[in-house]
Amino acid sequence: MDIPVRIPSTDQTMDLYATGFNAWNQLTFDTSPVDEEPDDVFAFTKVLAAEAVGRIASQLSYTFNKIQPGPSLDHPLASFFTVKTTKDFCSTLQVLSQGMAAVRQITAYDAGFIILLEDQTVLSCGDPRFRDCLGREVDESRPASEPGVIQDLSDLGEPIKKIAAAGYTAAALTESGGLYLWGMAPPGSQSRHNVFQDISELPNYFEVDGDKDVQDIGLGESHAIALTTDGCIYIIGDNTNGQVGHGKDVQDPISSWSKIDFTPPEGWAIIAVEAGPRSSFIVTKKVKQSQSS
């Protein structure tokens, strides 16, 4: 099936492309009824055009994004959803409000939460059974259930600009383009592909295509997508639902970072990437043309 593209009446300056799991039409932003059974999307497809596209939040049954102009958009099946928090995380929010820097970003994954503060400090908290996913030491004085500083990231000596997490893997991206990952392989009862074979319980630097600087990163439960500073898109991991955009014929997981053939239209540039559990997104922006004298 062809995916309808939602285009506001005003002049659009940003486009959103998506690929991956689409069982609930969660990659379709058009609100008109769809008679066809939704199919997964196996190649990056334009799904939204807007004056501005904000940060994408995607889960298995919905995709949420705030655009300009207009209200936040998501699929009708997910028009009303509740963000549930555990008792431990409620206490975490209380701790964060007591004398710490403001929160810039919070991301959740199967083992807990990763928190980025405005002073570039990164904290983690979560399930003590999966302490390898927390990126820090856990003991009686530094319990898993309370936010604790990931000291290895603080010791890097450069600011963290973004965090990402999904499944049992977490990532931190530095201002200079360094990508750091930590976590563990999925538990034995789960059939997810282990994307990063050399991952460990503490943050380690991971190269992308011969040590390229990374501009943006997105993590799924069994895949990842990266945008390098030279404007290239790289993917790695499972393609069962098309989440790395390699087409239906690619059944085996991509075991190392692979550059994809994605070129925006002339006059447009790639500015961001994101990932849901089984989906990937690319954001492009119209480049302002300089006036010749």
Automatic annotation (TrEMBL):
Residues in RCC repeats: 177-230, 231-286
Annotated GO MF terms: guanyl-nucleotide exchange factor activity
InterPro entries the UniProt entry points to: Ran_GTPase-activating (IPR051553), RCC1/BLIP-II (IPR009091), Reg_chr_condens (IPR000408)
A GO cellular component entry from the record: cytoplasm
PANTHER family in the cross-refs: REGULATOR OF CHROMOSOME CONDENSATION
This protein's name: Uncharacterized protein
Organism phylogeny: Eukaryota, Fungi, Dikarya, Ascomycota, Pezizomycotina
